[in-house]
Design brief:
Blueprint lengths: L1 E2 L4 H6 L5 E5 L3 H17 L2 E8 L7 H9 L7 E7 L6 H13 L5 E7 L4 H4 L2 H9 L1 E4 L8 H11 L2 E3 L2 H15 L3 H14 L3 E3 L1 H7 L8 H9 L3 H13 L4 H23 L4 H7 L5 H9 L5 H18 L11 H17 L7
Parallel strand pairs: 1-6, 2-5, 2-6, 3-4, 4-5, 7-8
Helix pairs in contact: 4-6, 7-8, 11-12, 11-13, 12-17, 13-16, 13-17, 16-17
Length: 353
Amino acid sequence: MQLRADQLAAHLQKGLKPLYLLHGDEPLLVQEAGDAIRAAARAQGYDERQTFTVVGAHFDWSAVLSAAGSMSLFASRQLVEIRIPSGKPGKDGSAVLQRYCEQLPEDVLTLVILPRLDRMQQSSAWFTALDGAGISLRLDTIERAALPQWIAQRLSAQGQRVAAGEEGQRTLAFFADRVEGNLLAAHQEVVKLGLLHPPGELGFEQVQSAVLNVARYNVFKLSEAVLAGDAARTLRMLDGLRAEGEAAVLVHWTLAEEALSLKRARAAMDAGQPLAMALRELRVWGPREKLYERILPRLSPGLAAGLVDAAAVCDGIVKGLPHPQWPRDPWAALTRLALRLARVCAREPARSA
């Protein structure tokens, strides 16, 4: 059974299932969900906890089976926590996890923590067994579009709110811009507002003076901004990456890979390959997959080829080879390439006459 993160608290109040599976790439949400499950377990008498971290190909899975099957001298119930940081239990681990799920031990609550998994991993026999044996929660990063609402919910939980209407939306947008890509910092800033101000309405000036610029920009989020056709966010992220000392060559590689992937996916579609299969072969999934599905039907082969050509020119500039029709500064050239990609990705489909 799958749950959303916001459903977990209500679920735990009704009782515990024998197994919980947490998977995702947002450390704050994984930590909060794990803490909530551990607290509920302690309240229900699961007083002993054993933790196993699966590292390397020679992990001793028999220790997990032994711990789950042994009776504690000090507690009638125990929590067994299995962490698999790589998301790959291996052949032996896969077999053990499937057998484990078939015969869940009595008086043992099992918590399995995994990173974000791709579609192939989520369709594996071991993941399917875990998913079917208990409760699973997918805990991915809060996307930029959903971040203002997430902040508003967190403020509400501590008795605070922003103004209604446009003023409040402006306040939340400002907040989100300052903490984008760093959910832990967003959480800390919300808590800080709770310490600085009493319950009630928060004005823009109060939020502005309290919230630090703690945005953590990264090239993967830059890709999403470009593919979404969001020019303003693209410029802001480029400025942030440059200010944080990110290598221009890495930023170019990210943009060039998107241009090449778009061209290859378009060519595959033109050759009759289903879009889903083309994206799977190009390893495009998650938020990028949805963006590609929106872009590709209206992307002409000529536009796709033009993006790749522009990426090749920019590559030379980043490596010190100027082009007469492009800026000499590498970051200025990267900005030009990123904005060209964003404009193409934002392009509306041509209307038939």
